[in-house]
Recover the amino acids of this structure.
């Protein structure tokens, strides 16, 4: 079968029942065929399918059931739905959702079955009313405990107390702070259910300290880090030996160069921090203090002359 269809309107113009084995083309199918405005569909069908597509290869493709439903050509029964291109029965949940089945107030869906709601669900939905001093305990209704009566306002507590479960307990610092019953320290902050300690950067960001104070603290940290790095490379006792004249001039000169090698980057860091206009610039100043590769390295062995040996030489 060959079908000639108008490209714009998709209206069938001509039907040629010849078998596809004849391999007809163009005007052999329809003597008025115009490829500019018409298209050819081919397929073996007992009658013309309605509606249909013509695919890229020129084959006639009948509309799927889904397409017919979406176009409103086919109406689905309320209890059925499309899965792929087939009609299947809706699940119980789908029937309830679409209004095919109506549940009673005390009923619900569970595992695609209609079951009674639990006592707790019926209480929550006010299907079962409670008296003022009744509470739901699991799936049972009972009278309140004293602690529950406190929570309900039947018993009054001190401002610093609260009820947890069946007990009366002190409130946390966070709760006391939130209720303005206590004042937090300058470096403390209420966050959710906790009182947290703020870092110095956080205190600066929140305006609790000034930039100059933050910079001074950064300089102190750099100074301490520099000192620790220098002590690792050149212990204090070695400098003491040099200071009291217990070491040779070469060793003293080497120690002096080492100390200066540590002081230079520290002074550079201090200058950068002092010039900083914001905390990010302060934090970006590197805190790496190591003896430079071009600096003379002091020996890790014991000094050739300690104060004691020097004194003994003087006695001799």
């Amino acid at each position: 079968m060959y079908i000639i269809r108008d490209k714009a309107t998709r209206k069938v113009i001509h039907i040629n029942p010849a078998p596809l084995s004849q391999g007809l083309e163009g005007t052999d199918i329809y003597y008025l065929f115009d490829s500019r405005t018409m298209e050819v569909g081919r397929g073996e069908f007992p009658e013309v399918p309605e509606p249909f597509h013509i695919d890229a290869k020129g084959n006639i493709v009948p509309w799927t059931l889904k397409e017919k439903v979406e176009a409103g050509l086919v109406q689905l029964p309320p209890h059925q739905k499309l899965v792929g291109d087939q009609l299947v029965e809706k699940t119980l949940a789908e029937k309830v959702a679409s209004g095919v089945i109506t549940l009673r107030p005390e009923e619900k869906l569970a595992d695609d079955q209609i079951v009674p709601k639990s006592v707790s669900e019926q209480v929550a939905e006010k299907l079962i009313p409670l008296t003022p001093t009744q509470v739901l305990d699991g799936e049972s209704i009972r009278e309140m405990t004293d602690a529950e009566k406190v929570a309900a306002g039947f018993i009054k507590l001190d401002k610093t107390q609260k009820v947890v479960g069946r007990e009366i307990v002190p409130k946390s610092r966070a709760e006391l702070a939130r209720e303005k019953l206590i004042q937090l320290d300058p470096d403390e902050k209420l966050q959710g259910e906790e009182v947290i300690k703020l870092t110095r950067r956080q205190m600066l960001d929140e305006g609790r300290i000034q930039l100059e104070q933050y910079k001074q603290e950064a300089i102190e940290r750099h100074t301490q880090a520099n000192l620790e790095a220098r002590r690792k490379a050149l212990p204090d006792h070695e400098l003491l030996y040099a200071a009291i004249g217990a070491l040779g001039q070469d060793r003293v000169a080497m120690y002096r160069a080492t100390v200066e090698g540590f002081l230079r980057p520290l002074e550079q860091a201090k200058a950068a921090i002092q010039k900083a206009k914001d905390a990010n610039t302060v934090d970006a100043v590197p805190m790496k203090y190591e003896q430079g590769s071009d600096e003379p390295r002091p020996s890790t062995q014991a000094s050739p002359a300690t104060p004691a040996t020097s004194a003994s030489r003087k006695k001799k």
Notes: Residues 292-296, 300-316 have pLDDT under 50 and may be disordered. Residues 247 and 305 are 6 Å apart (CA to CA).
